[in-house]
Amino acid sequence: MPNTSRSPPYATGRRSSADQPQQQRGLVTRLLSREEMVLVTSPRRDVTGTGGDGKVALDEVAGLPLVDFAPGWAIRHAVDRAFRAALVERDTTFEVNDIVAAAELVRHDLGVCIMPESIAARFPDLTVRRLERHAPHWNVMVVRPRGEAPPVVAALLRHIT
């Protein structure tokens, strides 16, 4: 899902922890959930991980063909920030704007991809590996205007929180 500033006033959206929204004038945010992002690979791809617990370091990921999302996506923003925090340069092999397209490239062992764990779980035939330090995180949030919400919006908020 692209992360744009033109979201409707009552939108649910996913944002990375690296992109914690500042309380913008007139908006209220509510965190619904938070999860770590993971490295997704083809089962044929040999990524052993340099950590004793099998976690993969971002400098190891940088040496692999990377399937990345288009600039402006919250996933891309979180991954960019994680690599910057780790002081690791990387090249993107494939840039996609669709989760299924990313999974297909990974499935055919054309690259690896960093994505939220809940999204990776939709592709059980792919291998999921945890990342060492600087693993990006993914937040699911509700953003709405300040003040009393209209009844329909209030009902939705009661239902999802």
* Shape designation: elongated
* Average of the residue pLDDT scores: 83
| Total DSSP helices | 5
Instruction: Please count the beta strands (DSSP E, at least 2 residues each).
Output: 7
Which runs of at least 5 residues are low in confidence (pLDDT < 50)? 1-22
- Given helix and strand content, the structural type is alpha/beta
* Overall helicity: 10-25%
Give the helices and strands as they follow along the chain.
EEHEHEHEHEEH
> What kind of sheet is the major sheet?
7 strands, mixed
Based on CA atoms alone, the radius of gyration comes out at: 17 Å
End-to-end distance: 21 Å
Our estimate of the beta-strand percent is 25-35%
Summarize the helices and strands and which ones pair or pack.
Layout: E1 11-16, E2 27-41, H1 58-62, E3 66-69, H2 74-85, E4 92-96, H3 99-107, E5 112-116, H4 117-120, E6 127-129, E7 137-145, H5 151-160
Parallel strand pairs: 3-4, 3-5
Antiparallel strand pairs: 1-7, 2-5, 2-6, 2-7
